[in-house]
Design brief:
Helix content is about 25%, strand content about 25%. It has a single domain, classed as Gcn5-related N-acetyltransferase (GNAT) (Aminopeptidase), CATH 3.40.630.30. The protein is globular and about 50 Å long. With about 250 residues, the chain is an alpha+beta fold. It contains five helices and seven strands; from the N terminus they run βααβββαβαββα. Helix 1 (about 50-60) crosses helix 2 (about 75-90) and helix 3 runs antiparallel to helix 5. The longest helix is centred in the last third of the chain and has 17 residues, at about 230-245. It has a seven-stranded mixed sheet with strand order 1-2-3-4-5-7-6, sandwiched between helices. It starts with about 40 loop residues before the first strand and ends with a helix. A hairpin with a 4-residue loop joins strand 3 (about 105-115) and strand 4.
Length: about 250
Amino acid sequence: MSWVNNHTPPPAQDLRGYYGPEPYDVNFVFPLHLRTLESARVRLTPFIPAQHAQAYLDAVTAHPSLERWTPLNHRTLDDVLRTIETWVRADPGWVLLAIVDKPSGAFAGVIGLIKTSAPQLTTEIGWVIVFPAFQRTYVASNAVGVLLRYCLELPTAEPPGLGLRRVIWTANPFNTQSARTAQRMGFKLEGTLRWSWVLGEGKEGKKPRAGDPFEDRPGRDSVLLAFCGDDWEDGGRELVQKRIDRV
């Protein structure tokens, strides 16, 4: 039997100034239960480039440390628009959500789900950034908490969840605050994934070997944590609600 390998990467799209379709299609594999994605103090809503991209860019250019531990760099509006279109909206396993502080109505940061698998009932919380005005407040715990509730609560609950079996959190080993945040929210440490990301140029990471296809881009290990459905039923639900309610 003969065979071929004729894959040709698609040409890069010219996405300058491209905000996506109207109405905006988030293209996520699961329904978004917006009633589940809010607490008394925080609301998660789809990140819509026309509404949120410029404000996000303003925050990360004013405070570059916000993207210190992320794989990508965003220096222009087109950088942000390209990431949203080619990394997030193009992959049904990804969705990016804007964090809204309900008392003030302000855009407080972003949080997302990546690498979501409907057949395997798994996902990963990724791209968690809280803007400086809302750091060390209730915003991070509420955003992570309602996203966990959305992922792990059963579809028959009120408000409904997705009934996923496993939610992953990964962190740069040098970003100890990220791992501590996850553990406070109920995630359990499982190990370290070596060389799990190819980082953008200028990022802090491990030097690749000579001849690496991306020799000018460092690599990253990831501390691996997880929060599973049985953890949720065995006291995890109450722990997360306690963190959401904390003053």
